[in-house]
Amino acid sequence: MDKYIRNIYKGVYTVLVGMRVTIRQFFEPNVTHQYPYEHDFEKKQNVREIPKGYRGQLYNRIEDCIGCKKCELICPVDCIMITGDKLPKGEQLWDSMNVVHFKDGREVIGIIEGDDKKIMSEDSMTITNITTRLGPQEVIDRLESSGDENRTETFTTDEVSRVVTRNPVVFYLDQFDIDMSLCMYCGLCTEVCPTQCLVMKDSLEGIEYSSFDRTDLIFNFDKQEMYEKGEAENTEAAD
Amino acid sequence: MPEIFSEGFFPNMNLQDETNWATDFVRDVIIPRLPEAVAGHFSVELGTVLVMLVCAGIFVAVVPLLPLVLVLAERKVAARFQNRTGPMRVGPWGTLQTLADGIKLIFKEDYIPPQGDKLLFLLAPYIIFACSFAVFAAIPFGQNILVSDFNIGIFYIMAISSVIVMGVIMAGWSSNSKWSLLGSLRSAAQIVSYEIPLGLSILTVVMLVESLGMRDIVNSQSGGIFTWLIFRTPFTFIAFFIFFISSIAEVNRTPFDLPEAESEIVAGFHTEYSGMRFALFFIAEYANMFAVSAIAVTLFLGGYEGVLPGYDFLGGFPGFVIKTLGLVFLMMWLRWTLPRLRVDQLMNLCWKYFIPISFFNILGTGIWGLIFKKDDVWSIGISCAIIYVGLISAYAIAGRNLARKPEPQPS
Description:
The complex is a heterodimer.
Chain A: H1 2-26, E1 58-60, H2 70-74, E2 80-86, E3 97-102, E4 107-112, E5 124-134, H3 137-146, E6 153-156, E7 160-166, E8 171-179, H4 188-192, E9 198-200, E10 218-220, H5 224-238
Antiparallel strand pairs in A: 1-9, 2-8, 3-4, 3-7, 4-5, 5-6, 8-10
Chain B: H1 21-33, H2 36-39, H3 44-62, H4 65-81, H5 97-107, H6 118-134, H7 153-162, H8 164-174, H9 178-209, H10 214-219, H11 229-232, H12 234-250, H13 262-265, H14 275-300, H15 316-335, H16 343-371, H17 377-404
């Protein structure tokens, strides 16, 4: 009889202990991340940021691509398709220019006055004929609104991390397609790229590129309008 | 007047009764508003039948909406217990999810196993559906919201809800599937066993009220929270918990969901059902869940009577629904707390614990009835004191146990 009552007591007691645990969970905040609608990873503690060096979607900065086809050769699944041809002798798409990488992530493309090999030893540098500014959107907006028409800026060398010389392109790329539905994300193509223009995005953009049509996963990086513009400038210069 | 509407054809309707609300409604509201040409041919009896049919139609149309809400509530509550959000995409906060599921089920193929017993297979969902909805006819939702006030209301509910097990066995047998048959046999064993403590717990209430009518039971609890039958004697306090746990077993919910144990026998008796027939099982399950909670509220928690006498706090139709949904939430809470019982544990609980305690309750209630007069204020005071002392001492023992054996910390 003693055991019988003890058993009842134990049963009721353990059920109540369990119910206390579950009702505590009931009032905990939820951990669900409404993913496609919610992007701020900082808000939820349980979601990690995408780590640096993550192998996401392939991206080619076609301005820097020299069309060496090393990536096409090394690709184990043949997902990169490049066709291109040399320009006629003596023609080039643009003059050599410099890409200045800043420590805060900005990039400015233009021509450095003076010797670009020794520029880092000087106090400041002046960039003329600025064509492109890359970097955080607010920095670009500030520069755009400041309305510097002359496309010339002076920077102190402390801000600059490195300067890359972009040689004149003599190789005309008709097609630079990457079929991401075939890609196996080995990253070999990014390793062999001599100009390091082929990269894998380690940001949200590198992950979120799903689509309903498989043909949408073939990314075209050939910018025909860039060549056309370059050709136009060249013909203008020739005239 | 046609002969079929004479008293002999509807003996139970008692059309001459002055208190029949439908007759009153027809005589006082409808007949005076009719055009004179029609009024001459329109009898009170025919009107009564028509009004009752319309009311039944409203009832049949509204009650299936209840599972629609309850299924969503179940999913949301389950999600909360697991720190999730539940369905969020269909409609605002996923509120239209069950509607979308229902539409999906309508469009699905209605598959009938070729080797099974076709007639029984087709019939089983309707039996379960009809029986679980027939229960609602005797539940008093409010002072005047009651389909039919039988003098044997609770007995009728017991009888009609026992027929459900027949539908379950028919479904299991006719599916020609091992899982279905096992599930239905388990269900039969479980429901038949748990009918006994359920009935005995109801008996304690009936002994105190001295009536089987649902409205009589509620009216006897009209004096505020301490006249609710759960606090009337210490034995009904125990009987309430036995009733509630047994009714969880009756509606096949976790921890007593052996008949439809997903991890053991797929889905039990409705494994082979698809489309709208499956939806009927599903609707019936959730309607049952609401029905047993409503019965528990009516029998033990004052029904539509409020907490204070004379005030409408937690009383009337809203109060009834709040109390019922509270018990439904308790069921969901238990579901996400306890794992499924083994078959022998299930039978142990019923035959070795619930049934002896229920008999003890009946004995105690009888003695209580001999000692105290009906509605004696002293009896309520003593009963509440006993319940209070019992709970306090149990809490004290629990505290001592906790002090003696601290929970092992994860290393």
